[in-house]
Amino acid sequence: MNALFQKFLSDGYMSKIETEIYENIQHIIRIIITFWLSQREVLAIKKFTEKGSMVKSIWSVISPYLTESGKQEQAKTIAKYGFLQQQSNNAE
C-alpha cells in the first residue's frame, strides 16, 4: 500500500502531506478491509451492506487528499470499473 501511495504522489494524484497522515490513511484502509465483513454482521445497516460500499468507503478516506488531477483519475476509474468487484467467468 505504501508503494501505491508513493506512486500516487509521484504521479501528482495526491497532495504532499505529513508521513504520519499517509500512515494513518493506510492503517484506516487496512482496518476497513480487514473488518468489513464482521462489521456488516454487527451493524446490519443497509448503507454498509449494499454492493460496492467497501470501495466507496475507501475512496471517501482517500478523496480529501487527492489533487485535482487525482480527482479526475478517480472519476475515470469509477466510470470504467464502478464500485463493484468484478466477478471472474468461473464464478458465474
Concise account of the structure shown:
With 92 residues, the protein is mainly alpha-helical.
Description:
This protein is an all-alpha fold. The chain has one domain. Helix content is 66%, strand content 0%. It contains 5 helices and no strands. The longest helix is centred in the N-terminal third of the chain and has 24 residues, at 19-42. The termini are far apart. Mean pLDDT is 82; it is low at 86-92.
User: What is the H/E order?
Assistant: HHHHH
**Overall 3D geometry?**
globular
Strand portion: under 5%
Main sheet attributes: strand count, strand direction, barrel closure: none
Mean of the pLDDT scores? 82
Number of helices: 5
InterPro entries: TetR (IPR025722)
Pfam family, one: TetR
Protein name: TetR family transcriptional regulator
Question: Which terms would index this structure?
Answer:
disordered C terminus; globular; about 90 residues; single chain; about 0% strand; mainly alpha; 5 helices
Chain-wise SSE layout:
Layout: H1 2-10, H2 19-42, H3 46-49, H4 53-62, H5 68-81
Helix pairs in contact: 2-4
